[in-house]
Amino acid sequence: MTDDQKYKIHMEPKFESLQLFDVPLLASLCNEKWFNQTLCKVNDQLVRLGVFNEGEFHWHKHDNEDEFFFVLSGELSIELEGETVILRPHNGITVPKGVLHRPYVKEATVVLMVESDSVTPTGDK
Asked: Is residue 84 within a helix (H) or strand (E), and if so which, with residue range?
């Protein structure tokens, strides 16, 4: 199984401008191990919902895009070369372009991510 097949990743925005959405409701409907849904597009940026129920993402980097993570619930660990950053509710961090990283969770976690619409979520090869 390739990395692309391990995760449910939906790149198309689910909501248009001026369309109300409920993040906790969307998260509660997800039972995938590692789920990613673009909520909306703001200019050239995607606002994305991550529902990570268990496990880890693979090591990867984005050559041309920074990636912002903001935890709504649970705990997200982001392993970097040489350190691990732990994000708890209402913590955020930007992983700069070109930095190798691997997010993982030990408990169900809900995250908002912001990244350029040119991003490949599974990383650049």
From this structure: strand 83-87
Token pair recorded at residue 96: 């700069």
Domains (range + CATH), the chain: 6-12+23-116 (2.60.120.10)
CB 74 within 8 A of CB 99: no
114: phi > 0 → left, psi -120 to 50 → alpha, else beta; which? beta
Q: What is the reported pTM?
A: 0.92
Contacts of 90 (CB under 8 A, 6+ apart): 70, 71, 72
pLDDT of 50 > 60? The answer is yes
Mean pLDDT of 28-36: 93
CA–CA distance, 51 with 8 (Å, rounded to integer): 10
Whole-number mean pLDDT of the chain? 93
Q: Residue 23: which H helix or E strand, with range? A: helix 23-28
